[in-house]
Amino acid sequence: MAQLVSSLRLTCQVNVFPCLVLCYLLFILVGGVVFTAVERPVEKELRAEVAELWRSFLQENPCVQESRLSELLGRALSAHHSDVAVLKADAEEKRYDFTSSLYFVIVTLTTMGSDTYTPKSDETKLFCIFYCTLGIPLTLFFLTLLSNLLLPIVTYAPVQHLHSYWGLPYTQAALTHASLLFVIVFSLLFLLPALLVCMLEPDWSFLEALFFCFVILSTVGQGGNSLGRNWSLSARETQELFTTCYLLVGLIVIITFRDTVLQVPQVRAVIRLLSGPQYTELESIHLNELSLNEDHCEKEPQYSQSICTISSVPFELMSPYSELQRATTCCPDTS
Amino acid sequence: MAQLVSSLRLTCQVNVFPCLVLCYLLFILVGGVVFTAVERPVEKELRAEVAELWRSFLQENPCVQESRLSELLGRALSAHHSDVAVLKADAEEKRYDFTSSLYFVIVTLTTMGSDTYTPKSDETKLFCIFYCTLGIPLTLFFLTLLSNLLLPIVTYAPVQHLHSYWGLPYTQAALTHASLLFVIVFSLLFLLPALLVCMLEPDWSFLEALFFCFVILSTVGQGGNSLGRNWSLSARETQELFTTCYLLVGLIVIITFRDTVLQVPQVRAVIRLLSGPQYTELESIHLNELSLNEDHCEKEPQYSQSICTISSVPFELMSPYSELQRATTCCPDTS
């Protein structure tokens, strides 16, 4: 019986990489199917609406040639795509000013991307390529440095407290802390801003506002649904400023949360399992770590400020820390 | 003299974090100034063009009420923003089909974001939030796993070869290899695709095509400038398929390149220096490592397949590897 279990475990470990590939493909397929199924009817409806508007306009204005109207609309759409105010009401107000520029810089460097501001001239495009090649890694590096300053306060100290004062085993302390942090982060970073957005833009439902917050902080970028299209210029500038701050602060908190989750022993065990045979062979996975009350889990690092844990927050460019530390502190033993 | 140099070095090390903050703010400001200066005249020109078109249309069609035209245009623009084909010519062709859905899934999960497809219904938005919360970390994890398979072939073996057969010191071998790889990656991943795009879309300049490739692979997202707006449906579907493949393969190569760069000792030294006092105190930076021909640089890990280097490619979620390995291989010494 024990042999069967251990051989089953080995098979599972060896085949984990192909399984992961298969599951991922399935995940993508399911996404594709759901989006097609749900979106198609909505799109059909919207399209019918526009066609009806078009038809009634031509009927009401018989002097207008359809081809001429098409031309006007086509040009207007392409100009609108480059964020040029097409409608008279906007035209007086919208300008590519310094605030907009700063907003563009931040959303581009965080790879969120802006759909309302895009470089129009060749010089800007060239500058943008060089600027981002340097700036994107720098921004991620910088955000991670700031998150590193947050980690001892937000994660190490509370887990240590839960462990030593409340007497929770290390794995439980880490898991409890991560769950609590999730609730706090989700409330402060998503629910609260979504409520604020709802209050500011009464046309939007709460879900729309939540989605708006989500696409910003996931750096996916807001596809057209931008806030404040009908606001005054100064209100829109304030909104851009707030969005920029929200994005930067949010990313730092999310990096901190991610690193907190990656410190949870159960999460580590799952990732080790999923990393495929080349890692499992080397590291001999303990599936037991997945359960909560194993004694050996207590041997995990205790969030002390030792050289092994102080710089444990690699994100993108931060990975060199672990590299460096392995090089300086660990490798001498093996080389 | 030696004392002066060493005290200067210490000052530099202690103040490196505030300096970094200052430099980063300056970097952002310069970006903002340049974008404002270059973009404003171009935007003014475009806006004047649209205003002229609008005026001449109203002059030619005196029966049209300006307010009515504004309304039509406003509705058309907002529908266009949700990727509903507004013009008759497109309307027959464009559909939210399965290919488009898959394209949307991939560009969203890689956080590039699509400006042409956005969820329109509430159900899709809710699904999108859950799907991405799970999918974005999974995608990054998956791409890094694949890049890990590439790294021994693309980086470890060539550097080892340069080191042992060509007799180059380790630091020089790593630097030479990284430079060569940069030329190859830039040619194959940016210049070649940009040339192809140029051939397919004769209206675009080479710079426009290069910018198009750049915003895809940096996951910033193509702000409106999407390829193939005037193409046939099947051509556009093929283009979406190719873009998806380009994005995924490109990201794997870029992750591999990034990790290659992070293995270069000079890069490590710079990052160690920039990481601020809390790291420098612990690790006692050797600025000498910045020079090429120091003997002690030879002591860097030799790209062997030891446990210290095999999993040296943390990217986003991959960071647990280094965590894990420190926990399993290194920490027993310090705890």
TrEMBL record, chains A, B:
Membrane topology recorded in Swiss-Prot or TrEMBL? Multi-pass membrane protein
Q: What are the transmembrane regions?
A: 15-38, 128-154, 174-197, 204-221, 241-258
UniProt-listed GO biological process terms: stabilization of membrane potential
Q: What is this protein called?
A: Potassium channel subfamily K member 1-like
Give the top-rank taxon of the lineage listed in the UniProt record for this protein. Answer: Eukaryota
List the GO terms this entry assigns under cellular component, sorted alphabetically: plasma membrane
Q: Where in the cell is it found?
A: Membrane
Keywords from UniProt, A to Z, are: Ion channel, Ion transport, Membrane, Potassium, Transmembrane, Transmembrane helix, Transport
Q: Mind telling me which SUPFAM superfamilies this protein's record contains?
A: Voltage-gated potassium channels (SSF81324)
One MF term from GO for this chain?
potassium ion leak channel activity
Q: Which PANTHER family does its entry note?
A: POTASSIUM CHANNEL SUBFAMILY K MEMBER 1, POTASSIUM CHANNEL, SUBFAMILY K
Query: Residue limits of the Potassium channel domain?
Result: 92-150, 184-262
